Amino acid sequence: MAIQRLHIETRYSEAAIHNGTVYLAGQLADDLTGDIRQQTRETLANIDRMLAEAGSDKSRILSATIYLKDIATHYDGLNAEWDAWVAAGNAPPRACVEARLYKPEVLVEICIIAAAN
């Protein structure tokens, strides 16, 4: 079965679709000057957009990995936005860890694996 890749860059693709599964690259906010809640909202909006383009949606998420710059400072703000966004009755398994991200202004990055529709 073929692998379909979306938004291919030199080092990565934004998404890969294979055998009914969608794999998203780590998604970020577009505006990195905002606080954790703003960055989380934008990141989740980008996830919605990429999942739709790949033929899926947030109700079909199989797994989420969340990377936070500072888990003690940002965990509550992340969860406030996540809880408002996640599809009711479809909260996926997830991991949330603290990590040094690629730029100091990045507060959150989220990787998603989802079933295609």
What does the model show?
This protein is an alpha+beta fold. It has a single domain (4-115), classed as 60s Ribosomal Protein L30, Chain: A. It has 2 helices and 6 strands. It has helices spanning 36-53, 71-85, and strands at residues 4-8, 13-18, 21-24, 61-68, 94-98, 108-115. It has a 6-stranded mixed beta sheet, covered by helices on one side. Helix 1 crosses helix 2 (71-85). The longest helix is centred in the middle third of the chain and has 18 residues, at 36-53. The radius of gyration is 14 Å and the shape is globular. It starts with a strand and ends with a strand. The model has no long low-confidence stretch (mean pLDDT 97). Pfam families: Ribonuc_L-PSP.
List keywords for this structure.
117 residues; alpha+beta; 60s Ribosomal Protein L30, Chain: A; six-stranded mixed sheet; 2 helices; 28% helix
SSE diagram, text form:
Elements (H helix, E strand, L loop, with lengths): L3 E5 L4 E6 L2 E4 L11 H18 L7 E8 L2 H15 L8 E5 L9 E8 L2
Parallel strand pairs: 4-5
Antiparallel strand pairs: 1-2, 2-3, 3-6, 4-6
Helix pairs in contact: 1-2
